[in-house]
Amino acid sequence: MLLRESIQLPNGDSHFRRPGLAGPDDVGGPTRLCNDTSVADPSVFDALVIEANAEPTEGWDFSWLDGRAVEGRPSWGYLAGVTHRLNTASSAVDLQTGGGERFAEALSKSERRPPTLAATESWSPNVTVARETLAPYGVDVVEVPEGDGLPFASETFDLVCSRHPTENNWPEIQRVLRPDGTYFSQQIGAGTNSELTEFFMGPQPMSERQRLATLMRQARDAGLEVIDAREESLPVVFFDVGAVVYFLRKVTWTVPDFTVERYRDRLKDFFELIERSGRFASHAQRILFEAREPGGQPRA
C-alpha cells in the first residue's frame, strides 16, 4: 500500500498524493511514478490505464483520485453556503445532483432540514446512486432528462441549488422558485481544463454559454435578480495517466469523444510527459452564482 502525503494548496484545502510524485508546491528535478521503473515503461502504462478504465464512474464522488490528482477549491465555500441556506429554507431542490453526495453532505451538516426536499438527475445510473445516498434525508429524487422541464408545480421551492450543472434552464428555475426564493449555484466556467482538452483535441473554441456575463444576462432575462456573481481560476494537477483516464471517463465534456482506444497514442504521450516532469497542470474556472426571485412578482 502506498502511503499518502498531504499537499497544502494556497486556499487551505488539503489533498493527497503518492510519495515520489511532485506536488503543485514542490520544486525539484524530474520524478517517476514508481520506484525502479524506467521512463515510459509500457507495462506501467498498461497497468495504470487498465485499472482506471475498469473503475466505475457512477455518482459524483472523486475520492478514487486521492493520491493521483489535486484540485483547488474556491474561496467562497459552496458546501457551507448551501448548508447555511438549508437552515432557513422550508423547501429545497438540488438540480442535477449527480450521485447526491454533495447535497447529502450539506443536509448532514444543516441544523434543521426543510420539510420538503427534492433532487433531480438526468443520468439513470446516477439516479440509482442518488436515491440510495439521499434516502436517509427524505429527499425525493426524480429522473429528469436533460433539457426537459422540471416536474414540480410553480412556486414550490424557496431554495433551488445546483453544483456544476451542465445547463441552466432559467425559465424553469424562475417558475419553481417562490417569491423571494433564491437560486444558489456553483458553475463550471468557460475554459475549464482547456489545457487538458487541448492536449488531446488541439485548440478548441471557448464556450460563450459558460461565461459569467452570459449567466447574468440569461438569469435577468428570466426575471431573476442577480445577488452575487464571481469567478475564480483554480489549479488542477494530475500525477499519473490513470488519473486522467478516470477523469475523462467521468467528466465527459472535457474530451467529449474520449475512449482509451481512440486516444491511446495521446495517452502514451501523456504518460511520457508525466514520467519526465512528474505532473500535468491545468486550471478549472469556477463561478459562484446566486439569484433571487423578486418578492410578489405576478406569475403568468
Any descriptors?
9 helices, 8-stranded mixed β-sheet, Rossmann fold, disordered N terminus, two-stranded antiparallel sheet, alpha/beta, 10 strands, about 300 residues, globular
Structure write-up:
This protein is α/β, with parallel strands linked by helices and 300 residues long. It has a domain at 78-193 and 208-233 and 286-292: Rossmann fold (3-Layer(aba) Sandwich). 30% of the residues lie in helices and 24% in strands. The protein has nine helices and ten strands. The chain has helices at 42-54, 78-86, 101-109, 124-134, 170-176, 194-201, 212-221, 241-250, 264-277, and strands spanning 5-8, 14-17, 69-71, 91-94, 116-121, 140-143, 157-163, 177-188, 225-238, 280-292. The strands form two sheets. It has an eight-stranded mixed β-sheet with strand order 3-9-10-8-7-4-5-6, sandwiched between helices. Strands 1-2 form a two-stranded antiparallel sheet. Helix 1 (42-54) runs parallel beside helix 8 and helix 2 packs across helix 3. It is globular.
